[in-house]
Design a protein that fits this description.
Elements: H1 2-24, H2 29-51, H3 55-65, H4 73-85, H5 89-100, H6 107-123, H7 127-140, H8 144-161, H9 164-171, H10 176-181, H11 183-197, H12 202-215, H13 220-232, H14 236-249, H15 254-268, H16 271-284, H17 288-301, H18 304-317, H19 321-334, H20 337-356, E1 360-362, E2 368-369, E3 385-387
Antiparallel strand pairs: 1-2, 1-3
Helix pairs in contact: 1-2, 1-3, 1-4, 2-3, 4-5, 4-6, 5-6, 6-7, 6-8, 7-8, 8-9, 9-11, 11-12, 12-13, 13-14, 14-15, 15-16, 15-17, 16-17, 17-18, 18-19, 19-20
Length: 394
C-alpha cells in the first residue's frame, strides 16, 4: 500500500493542478462550466477514495478526471507507472500508446513516453520490442541524461537475455563516472564470456578475465576462473598466484580457494608452504575451512591428538558445526572403542544437521542455498552472495 501511495499522491496533486489550470483557460461559458463541474466531481470523488484507502477506485476517478494535454502528461505517466507496479502492465501499455498517438507531443515528451513503454515491454518479457524502442531513443535523444537512462536500461535488458558482449558494447558508450557505477556488473559480464569461451581456448578466456579485472580489480570471481583454467593446464604456480589474490580481493571467499590450493601445493610437493599460507589466512581471514585444513596438516605432521587439541582451541574462538563435525571424526578415530558407538550416532545427527543447512546467502535479499550464485537468483544482484559466517557456516 505504501508503494502505491508514493505514486498516487503525486498523481492526485497533478490532477488538482490540471483542474486549476483548466479553470483558468477561457472557453465558452457553458462548456467550461460543465467541464469544471465534471472534473471537480471526479477529482473530489478520487480524493475521497484515496482518503479511505480505496486505491483502485481512486485511480479510476483520476483517469476520468484527467484530460490529455501537455500539462497532464506527467500525471498520465505516473498513473501508468502505478499500473505497472501493481502488475497491470497491459493498462500501462494502453496509456502510453494513447499518449504516443497524439500529434502535438514535444520531442522530449515523446522520448519519455517511449522510455516508459520500453519498461512496460521489459516487465512482461517482450524484450525485442523493448530493445528496439531503447535503441531508437539512444539514436534520437538530444540530451545526455535521456541517452544515459536508455543505455543503462538497455544494458540490463541484454543482461536478462544473456547477451554479455552486447551489454559490454553498450556500456562502452557511457561516460567514465557512469561506467564506475556499474563496474561490478561489467566485470561479471566479462566472467560470463570467459566461462563461455574457456572450452575453446584459454587465450580468449584470459582476454575477458583481464578486462574483468580492469573494470573491477576486486573481482574474486575472475581470479577463481583464471585459477581453474591454470589448474586444468597443470600450471600450478600460476594457479596459486591467482588463488592468493582472492585474499586481497574478498576475504569472505578465501574458503573457496582452500581445496584448490591444497591440490596445487600437493602437485608441487610443497605442503609446508601451504601450511604457511593457511596460518596467514588464520589471522587475516579466519574460517572453518581454513581451521580444518590446518588441523589436517597438523595431523599429518604429528598425530590426531595434536590436531584435535588445535581444533578444540580454535573452535572455542570460532565455533562452527563444520569444525565440530571434524572434531567428532577425530575423537571417533582416537577415542576408545566404548565411546565410538555413541560418537558415531552423534556424528550421524550432526552430519544431517550440516547437510540440511544452506552454505551461501545473499546479503541483499537473504536468499540462501548450497550453491554459490554470482548473481542472486532472487534479487538479481551481482556479487551479493557469500559463504554464511558463524555457527552454521564458516
Amino acid at each position: 500500500m505504501s508503494a502505491d501511495y508514493l505514486l498516487i499522491v503525486p498523481l492526485f496533486l497533478a490532477v488538482g493542478a490540471g483542474w486549476w489550470l483548466g479553470r483558468s483557460q477561457s472557453r465558452s461559458a457553458k462548456l467550461e462550466q460543465e467541464r469544471k463541474v465534471n472534473l471537480s466531481r471526479e477529482y473530489f470523488i478520487g480524493l475521497d477514495y484515496l482518503i479511505n484507502e480505496k486505491t483502485d477506485e481512486a485511480i479510476e476517478s483520476f483517469i476520468r478526471a484527467l484530460e490529455i494535454n501537455s500539462d497532464t502528461i506527467p500525471a498520465h505517466l505516473t498513473l501508468a507507472k502505478l499500473f505497472r507496479r501493481k502488475g497491470d502492465v497491459e493498462r500501462a501499455i494502453g496509456i502510453h500508446q494513447k499518449l504516443l498517438a497524439r500529434p502535438d507531443l514535444s520531442q522530449q515528451d515523446f522520448l519519455r513516453i517511449q522510455m516508459a513503454l520500453a519498461r512496460d515491454y521489459d516487465a512482461i518479457g517482450l524484450l525485442d520490442r523493448a530493445e528496439n524502442l531503447l535503441s531508437d531513443i539512444i539514436r534520437q535523444a538530444g540530451g545526455q541524461e535521456m541517452r544515459r537512462k536508455a543505455q543503462t536500461l538497455l544494458i540490463k535488458l541484454y543482461e536478462k537475455e544473456g547477451e554479455w558482449q552486447q551489454a559490454l558494447d553498450t556500456a562502452s558508450q557511457l561516460q567514465t563516472q557512469e561506467l564506475r557505477e556499474i563496474r561490478h556488473e561489467l566485470a561479471h559480464y566479462c566472467c560470463e564470456l570467459a566461462q563461455r569461451v574457456s572450452p575453446q581456448g584459454d587465450a580468449d578466456a584470459e582476454r575477458f578475465l583481464r578486462q574483468a579485472l580492469l573494470y573491477d580489480p576486486n573481482c574474486a570471481r575472475a581470479s577463481l576462473i583464471r585459477a581453474k583454467l591454470q589448474i586444468a593446464a597443470g600450471r600450478w604456480r600460476h594457479a596459486i598466484k591467482s588463488l592468493k589474490q582472492v585474499l586481497e580481493q574478498d576475504v569472505l571467499l578465501v574458503s573457496e580457494t582452500i581445496p584448490l590450493l591444497q591440490r596445487c601445493y600437493s602437485e608441487l610437493g610443497s605442503l609446508a608452504e601451504f601450511e604457511g599460507y593457511l596460518r596467514a589466512c588464520l589471522s587475516k581471514a579466519p574460517s572453518a575451512s581454513v581451521i580444518i585444513a590446518l588441523a589436517d596438516r597438523i595431523r599429518s605432521q604429528k598425530d590426531v591428538f595434536a590436531a584435535g587439541v588445535f581444533l578444540t582451541e580454535e573452535l572455542k574462538k570460532r565455533p562452527s558445526i563444520k569444525g565440530f563435525n571434524r572434531l567428532i571424526d577425530m575423537h571417533i578415530e582416537y577415542g576408545s572403542s566404548s565411546a565410538r558407538q555413541s560418537l558415531t550416532v552423534l556424528r550421524g545427527l550432526t552430519g544431517q544437521l550440516e547437510q540440511s543447512k544452506p552454505v551461501y546467502q545473499c546479503n541483499h535479499c537473504g536468499f540462501a542455498g548450497r550453491t554459490l550464485h554470482w548473481q542472486c537468483p532472487s534479487c538479481k544482484q551481482w556479487s551479493s552472495t557469500r559463504p554464511i559466517q558463524g555457527l552454521e557456516g564458516e
